[in-house]
Specification:
Elements (H helix, E strand, L loop, with lengths): L6 H60 L12 H27 L1 H4 L6 H18 L5 H19 L11 H26 L4
Helix pairs in contact: 1-2, 1-5, 2-4, 4-5, 5-6
């Protein structure tokens, strides 16, 4: 086989180009892609934890409202069973507190992952008011009720991929959230008025 002039130079240039491309990609591109993949994974994990926190609020709140503490004079309950029911109710109330605490402490990790400002605003409003309910002086049953009412419209948008269904679902959910917040504000105003000393 006859070697054409310049063939070895062409092969050498092709080999060097392939080597530089492979090494350069390994040093420059792959680490950046891996870092980006990790960041995106962390954002999705935060989003999943937000959704899991909403589910915990709904489920712990439902259990708290369904299982009432027995009356002290109820003959069908022993003191041991009363103590166990109290302990369970305390545990469920703590789950509500922990879920709202995580949501408010980590809002910056999951709220920006949704594409529209109205969605991020809805999350911020929900999280702030949910935490306010959790730390309020309301009774556990009322806290559970209000947290469920706050969570339902937000879950309709985020938990069921409602944000992808467009404008028909979002306005109604925002209105439901605002109505619950207005109810909470009126309830607080009534409590403050009742607690105010008569002049």
């Amino acid at each position: 086989m006859e070697v054409e002039p310049g063939m070895w130079e062409t092969l050498g240039v092709a080999l060097v180009t392939a080597l530089v491309t492979t090494v350069g990609t390994g040093w420059l591109v792959v680490p950046r892609l891996e870092a980006r993949k990790r960041r995106i994974g962390e954002l999705h994990q935060a989003r999943d934890k937000f959704l899991a926190s909403m589910l915990r609020i709904v489920s712990a709140g439902a259990r708290l409202r369904a299982v009432q503490e027995p009356a002290a004079d109820d003959p069908g309950w022993t003191e041991e069973m009363r103590a166990r029911v109290r302990a369970e109710r305390t545990r469920w109330a703590k789950q509500l507190d922990e879920a709202t605490e995580w949501m408010v402490d980590n809002v910056e990790t999951y709220a920006p992952t949704w594409p529209a400002a109205v969605l991020r605003e809805m999350i911020g409003t929900y999280v702030a008011h949910a935490r306010a309910v959790a730390i309020s002086e309301r009774g556990d049953n009322r806290k559970a009720e209000l947290l469920s009412e706050l969570t339902d419209p937000v879950w309709a948008v985020f938990g069921s991929r409602g944000w992808q269904r467009g404008p028909r679902l979002l306005p109604r959910s925002v209105q439901r959230l605002e109505a619950t917040i207005a109810t909470m504000a009126a309830e607080t105003d009534r409590q403050l008025a009742a607690a105010a000393p008569a002049s």
